[in-house]
Amino acid sequence: MAAPVSALGAYAAAAKLLNDPTRGAGEAAGDGSFAAVLKDALGAVNELGQKSETQTRAMANGKADMVNVVTAVSETEVAIDAVVAVRDKVIAAYEDIMKMPI
To answer: 101: Cβ–Cβ under 8 A, 6 or more apart, which residues?
Structure first.
């Protein structure tokens, strides 16, 4: 299991990508394109990250159960791992396409 600090860093990077105004310009919401699906996935990861952050803060204030915090952080970690796996596959596919002769 990754350290919570690295999970929070990945969450921050996902939130930055999601909130970038240059992404998705001119695209209709829910159009079924890969970009829309990817944006929805990043939104879900962002929501899980916010839930994890809220649970962690509540635990620090003594208002949450440790089980809820660990569950929220684990859910976020799994979601981030899934997004990273998709990213890696997209990069690998791009590299394969770039190696093709013209």
So the answer is: none
Query: What is the residue-level pLDDT of the chain in tens, covering all 102 positions?
Result: 455 555 566 666 666 666 665 655 444 444 678 788 888 888 989 999 999 999 999 999 988 889 988 998 899 999 889 889 988 999 999 999 999 998
- Residue 42's nearest CA partner among 4, 66, 13, 68 is 13
Phi/psi at 46 (nearest 5 deg)? -60, -45
As given in the structure block, the two tokens for residue 10 are 């990945």
Report the largest interatomic distance among the alpha carbons of the chain, rounded to a whole angstrom. Answer: 62
